[in-house]
Every structure is written in structure tokens, then in C-alpha cells.
């Protein structure tokens, strides 16, 4: 469903991605693991059109989107929940969800998506009129994911969904991520600093180091790899 080939991205003189290549099949949960500065967030931002690569190619659902504007990428069915959630704190929960559906012109579909989001995150329905900035960290993450789901994505990228969330809510968020994938068939690319958690919910993993794939394989096998355990799993 997604194929990234020889991607090169730089911030001025600093190279963030150097020849990055990987592919993700439809229906999978795949995770990108790596330390700070490895290029995980840059990868997601480039795929979603927020950054332009110096070289390389991105193909999504059999269409080259390397130079496609972000709003057209969203319209193709690729959603992005950014690091730090980036909700509209001065808008209500309902208004934030409406923003996620701004490209949809079918009111029945918008209502269907809204009910779908409430089914996944019932707490959002309870807080529809509440200002988003007053929600807890976990609730804001639910809202950020819900906002992305409002756009009817086929493919969803999640950047650090556990960041800044109370431990008791992290398991809930990740249970919902698995539910979104299994019950609704949405392919998921997950960036997560908690490597143990990421490997628990994913079927396949890529390990990034300085903008390149250093390791890859089935998540259950990588969990037992001595190099990965020593560097990322606290072993």
C-alpha cells in the first residue's frame, strides 16, 4: 500500500534521511523504532507532504505522491496524527472533529464517521462541547486520532501516541489502535519511543538509525534480537 524508495531529506546542511527505503502492505500495523534524531518524525512528515525530499519516491495506493500537496494526500486516504497531537486547543471537541472532515462533502458520510469515532472513543462524545485545550493528555490524543479518522483514511500514521499520556491511559490508546486496524481494516504506520509497546501491537518493524534502516523483521522476532534488546528494550 505504501512504498518509499531511496528517500533523501535534509534540513539545510543536516541530512535527516539518506536513502531510506521500505514498504508496507495493506492491512498491517508496522512500526518505526529508533532513537531521538533517527529520522522517524521526518519520515512521516515527508510521506504526508509536509516536507519535500531532495530525492527519492513515495508511492501510496499505486499513485506517486512524492510531489503531491498535503491536502490531496489526505484526500487520497492517508491520515497523519502528528507528534504532540496538534489539536486546535481554542476549539471545542466537536469543532476539532469537524476540521478532520473538511475535505468531505457527503454529510451522511461525515455523520457516519462521527458515530464511528464515538464508537472507538466514547469519551469524546461526552465532551463534545468542551474546549479541546482543557482535555487531559490522553483525551487530547483520542481527539487527535478521532480527528484523523473523520477524514475516512485507508492508511493512518501515528507519531508518538503515548507521549505525555498518563500510564493508565496508554494501554487504552493502544488497544484502540489495534481495534482500528483489526475491525476497520485501516493500515497503520506507528512511530513510538516505547519500543516494547510498539513491538507488542505491530506485526513488522523497521529500526531507523541516522536516517537509514538498520534492522527490520517481524516484531516477534526482533523482540528477541540481542542488539535490539540492548539498545531499545532495556535488556
Gross geometry: globular
Number of helices: 10
In the CATH scheme, the class would be: Alpha Beta
- As for the number of domains, it is 1
Order of helices and strands: EEEHEEHEHHHHEHEHEEHH
CATH topology: Rossmann fold
Largest sheet: 6 strands, mixed
The gyration radius over C-alpha positions equals 17 Å
DSSP, total strands: 10
Return the CATH architecture.
3-Layer(aba) Sandwich
User: Strand order within the widest sheet?
Assistant: 6-7-8-3-9-10
Task: Write the SSE topology.
Elements: E1 2-11, E2 14-24, E3 29-33, H1 40-47, E4 55-60, E5 63-64, H2 70-75, E6 78-81, H3 93-100, H4 107-120, H5 122-126, H6 137-149, E7 155-159, H7 167-184, E8 187-191, H8 195-201, E9 204-209, E10 212-218, H9 219-222, H10 226-231
Parallel strand pairs: 3-8, 3-9, 6-7, 7-8
Antiparallel strand pairs: 1-2, 1-4, 4-5, 9-10
Helix pairs in contact: 3-6
Describe the structure.
By secondary structure, the protein is an alpha/beta fold. The chain has a single domain, classed as Rossmann fold. It is 38% helix and 26% strand. The chain is built from 10 helices and 10 strands. It has a 6-stranded mixed sheet, sandwiched between helices. Helix 3 runs parallel beside helix 6. The protein is globular and about 45 Å long. The two termini are 34 Å apart.
Can you tag this structure with a few keywords?
four-stranded antiparallel beta sheet, Rossmann fold, 235 residues, globular, alpha/beta, six-stranded mixed beta sheet
